[in-house]
Specification:
Helix content of chain A: 25-40%
CATH architecture of the largest domain in chain A: 2-Layer Sandwich
Oligomer: heterotrimer
Strand content of chain A: 15-25%
Chains: A alpha+beta, B mainly alpha, C mainly alpha
CATH topology of the largest domain in chain A: Alpha-Beta Plaits
Number of helices of chain C: 7
Number of strands of chain C: 0
Distance between the termini of chain C: 33 Å
Helix content of chain C: 40-55%
Order of helices and strands of chain C: HHHHHHH
Strand order of the largest sheet of chain A: 8-1-9
Structural class of chain A: alpha+beta
Bound molecules: iron/sulfur cluster
Amino acid sequence: MSEHNKRDTMQERRDFLKAGAVMAGATAASGVLVYSVAHSRAPEEGASASKRWGMLIDTSKCGDGCNDCVTACNTENGLSGETGPQDSQYIRKLNIKDLRNGRVHELPMLCQHCEHPPCVDVCPTGASMRRADGIVLVDRHICIGCRYCMMACPYKARSFVHEPLTDQNPEVPRGKGCVESCTFCVQRVDRDEQPACVEACNAKGHQAMVFGDLKDPESAIAKALKSQASTEVRADLGLNTGVRYQGI
Amino acid sequence: MANENCINQGNCRTPQFLMLLGAGGLVVLGTLFAFFTLEHHGHVLTGMNNQVVWGLPHVFAVFLIVAASGVLNVASIGSVFGKQVYKARAPLSGMLALAMLAGGLAVLVLDLGRPDRLIVAMTHYNFKSIFAWNMLFYNGFFAIVGLYLLTLMDRKLKAYSKPVGFAAFLWRLALTTATGSIFGFLVARAGYNSALMAPMFIIFSFAYGLAAFLLVQTAMYLWNGLTLDERVLARMKTLLAVFVAASLYFTVVFHLTNLYFAKQWDYERFILLEGGVYTTLFWVGQILVGGLIPLAILFSPGSRKSLALVSLASLLVIIGGHAQMYVTIVGGQAFPLDMFPGYEMSSSFHDGVVAGYTPSGWEILLGMGGIGIAFLATVVAVRAFKFMPQDDFSALECEKD
Amino acid sequence: MAKLAGCLRAGLRLAVLAGVAALMAAPSSEAVAGVDLPKLERGKGEKCVEDTQFMRRNHMDLLKHQRDETMRKGIRTTRHSLKRCVECHASEKTGSVAASKEDFCAACHSYASVKLDCWDCHATRPGKKSAASPHVPSQVNGGGQ
Ligand code: SF4
Ligand code: SF4
């Protein structure tokens, strides 16, 4: 290793890239490719407040007992898929029935990426945080596992990791003792891909989920929200959620 | 251990003292064992889950924290309101407050998912978080009550004991308000979202704290073969009765206001009627054992002279207090979160159903540690310092209650 | 027990021992005056993103900086990303940086007895999908810091 000492930084960098090219395990490489193809934001730019990511879910298109979004989420995020009381679930299918007229709906429930997230308000350390582009995340580096955010979330969107984990997805670090929840697949969003659930839902032909930038008037989601009625779950709380529903 | 280490006691009874230490130490050892086991395996070993995220350890911890602030009430009545009986008990009250707070906080910390990051909790503050404020209040409590104890026990500082005592009084009110608000601010949960949470916690703290104080005081008198003066006993027992009655009153008001709001009916039906273990704990634990029976005992003519009866009432108040915490903390989480009012819900994530929670032995071990720590600290402090109440009966005579 | 210089910065460990000075001054990672240094497996590629000596002392700072940038601001430069470290330094034998005591991270950290909790959450091996299809990055994407 010592023979590298004297090279200058630029040289070093080129070397690294060369090394990267021959490297067998270049997980990020595919992401890098996407940047060069469909570029919208350079990696050093970071999340910007000029965007707000959101999701619109049309429950009428939600298949009967369909679980495709959930499965895709589990695969992407390395969740076991178990549904015991101590297992993590980022997204789940919720069956609801109107008690007045008996009408039933099915819908995926996930972190609503609130504009005024109670989880962030109550977190004592600031581990629960809202990124500039509206994605709500848990910074596991400073989460102490107090679980107060789970008490505060009105949507039960969060899970606590009860056991030591191994073999995580390199892009989705997660581990024992911290709280976690849907990240809108931030690792994918940052390279201009759709969250795994949305991709799966569309790929299977259900087209029940639209993901996009709420602040961009030209985006599909913004247009849909402008032209059709949509619902915010527990709108009475005034959290201005990033996830909206249609058909309920 | 040298016999001379016991201050102000006729007979040191060192072997018995060591036995007490041993008993407390054993409990704390059990707690540490549970802690390291949980730290290694994670919270899978507990009954806690993604629905009931705060379990038995929190019941013990929050009880101790609330009672700690209440125990200081004895000192406050003494220094702020100038009552002799209580003045003589101020040092003991301050010391107990510190010991119980330390015990409660220890359990809270040991139950964290990442207790190794305690330093993070101490260095990263989100000032919007009532939880973070609580941490500041707890730390401040140690400082202020510590200072207060100094002014009480050091002749040179005696002059400052009144203002410092007053500061401690205000601080403890703020602290319990903050503790109650931990729950009161949870807008989404039917069981918690109430402005009454904070004042109710304050009233509870008065009762729990005084009950704990009376028990410790009784033990100290017995240990030293002394008898507590009847007049002192009578006053303190009346005060306890007042606090217990006030707690009951607040509980009734809390549930009545809830009943006034239609959206809270389901929650009330759950706690008051159909909640199984929570309903039982509410009626039998909180109301009967923790409220009505102690009241009956305290108002019975026999209790005027009977230390045993007053102690029994105190013990019952403490047991009822734990039941109350269990109903508030665990019951509030077990009751399903209502995301779609007017709808019925079901899912793989236990939506729409009462969440199950059965505490495991590890949680009991962990939770008992708080009491263990408070007990150890008290036993040592009482032996090493002058905490035995020194009543000045001539002053008592001329003071009207 | 000697400690690597970097460990001192890593946090709470205050024990400054005689070996440290010798280590810092040492031009290479070979044994210094009777102290057996951990034998590290060489990473893939030609050289590290920074000078070896610099890395030895500062990798934790770089990683911590990068961690906050990526996590909280969404800055996704790869030069100092932990994932990239793992990709180069995963052991030939175990495929991991911390599966056995000889693996890159574990070797040094157990030698210096500095506990690290990166691997509670982060994968210790490169991702599977990239191993199957080694893409060539078409665009410089480093920059870092
Ligand atoms: S849905 Fe819950 S976890 Fe997600 S941002 Fe809102 S409060 Fe936080
Ligand atoms: S569990 Fe973690 S993210 Fe949630 S409130 Fe506590 S420290 Fe914050």
